[in-house]
Specification:
The protein has 368 residues and is of the alpha/beta class. Helix content is 35%, strand content 24%. It has eleven helices and 16 strands.
Length: 368
Amino acid sequence: MAQVGKLRLGIFGAARNVPFSVIEPVRNNPDLAARIDIVGVACEQGEAENVAKAWGVPTSFGSYDELLADPTVEAVYNVLPIEMRAHWTVRALLAGKHVLSETPMSSNAREALLAQRAAEDSGRVLLEGTHPTCHPVTARVREMLVEGKIGGLERIDLTLPIGHSLHGKTICTKTGALLGLGIHGVAIVRALLGDEPRVVSASAMPSEQDAGVDEAMSISLRVPSGVEAHLDLSVKLSGANEPTTFEVLGNNGTIHVKEWFTGRGKSSNEIALETFENDGEKKVERVDIRAERDTFYFQLMVFVDEVAEQRFRGSSGLPWEYTKGKGPSDAVRNMALVDSIARVAGISSRMTTTPMPPPYNVIGRSKL
């Protein structure tokens, strides 16, 4: 793997997940600390200095523009609110920074497409933080499917409770199940299937506190081969301690995975395989991962590896040049599927409220 010094990373925003999704993985893993240097955090409303002190980050920036103007900052982790996220991702790319964006990368698929174009035009790496797809357990299950361990693939069942979300329980209940959890659900399904699903059905349960927020969703997807996927999403606080699980069914067996990440090194990392022949043989395979190497460790390693590889090869951020992560085109596909689910469920997709900077405020002749 090509390595070109430490990647100097700045953070946009003071989201509550930053300590365990960025700060702790770097501090707890010497190999990652040798690759990334967290140099500063940018906040507004005068929060930056207190946040930097609390997180042990050396530099505070009083505005996002101030961070972007610093030539020593090479990359940005963007955890700003969803309605601001794509705008500042594009601003960072135009300033010559690589970007790792929190999920979802944008409010809608059109914003995601414009962010992709900005990454290509600026020659910088842009990845969406769908961290479960970076985890070795997800990769191993995909390998097992390709190897035919359960015969022909028939169905995937995925359950994502509120505890899966990084936004925090209170924020997640305001964001809703589809944007708060569904973006991870569709990314996991697409990674396991290796194909592009279409929406068969989707229904939303509105929150009693706010009818405009989807508290729970039931979604059915299908790929052209006929394989189906079912997602159950819920931001009900009563499910805060329920595990994230998925089950993959084939015509000769079943794969069960339960809570393969939590963000704090508590992953079980176990894959249970049950086959239907030989009197229903059952096996449990454990992916050997050190406790401190959680899902966010792998996400950050994918990001820094991608930046290093593209630098080494003199690449320019085009879709076919991504070899470690899937690139922004994957985020566009994720968001397009989320938008389709919203339409079928009869709920409103998020509109653009923070205009993108020119020339990325238009697609063809349509203004956002």
